[in-house]
Amino acid sequence: MADPRIPASFMAPGTSSFADFLSTEAPDLLPGRPKDRQSLPAGSAADLAPHGTTIVAATFDGGVVMAGDRRATMGNVIAQRDIQKVFPADEFSAVGIAGAAGLAVEMVRLFQTELEHYEKIEGTTLSLDGKANRLAALIRGNLGMAMQGLAVVPLFAGFDLDKGLGRIFSYDVTGGRYEETSFHSVGSGSMFARGALKKLYRDGLDEGGAVEAVVQALYDAADDDSATGGPDLTRRIFPVVHILTAAGGRRLPDGDVAAVADRVVAGRMTRPDGPHAELEGGR
User: Active-site residue 113, yes or no?
Assistant: First the structure.
């Protein structure tokens, strides 16, 4: 029996995109589409809303791990110390947010609904490449707000059931999609995080090794970037770590992340710059 509250177009063939459905039925509900439809004044709104950084991801044998620090900033002020920046997109993928926090969270929720809607309408899960493309379209729709300084540039990762491996995708503000190899990072501390991963990452990492590598990378990012928060030992606030394998995705328990972070901090007491990478031949 049809539900009179749901427009017929919601269940019509070819409407597997929830974002396309909204653009037709209620365009004002899309991220970056104000209800009054008025153009925004010239200038930048970058310092008027909390921004989140930094997100890192790394593949390992059997999956991929994504982690994000917990700090949000407004200009030179710490707006929040325990913000969540890594979210499950569906059972086998996750998205980490960098940029305008409010718009980013709204976009993540729409993306989650988009994937769920596709699965209900089509009766099958969207491929990992398809998920990455859908997220690119949502980012492209936020271009107007990005031009006002409210950019959203997420990092997307998932386990590809067809290929049997973890994959990572990055984006630019226009919705350009780029697949990354082995590891990647986005956000204001990304340069330092990627530098850390270059020396720590190696082929054949297991899950535990990949988790420690991304936590080390976030520590290095916080060491040089004021907008990235390091492990907060007094408040016991640690990165959010999400692991994706053939068994699905799961958030690593806070206690397990705390144990890794405590180990990383203890190591920095004797070696402030972090562990040294092994050279070829173990030299």
Answer: no
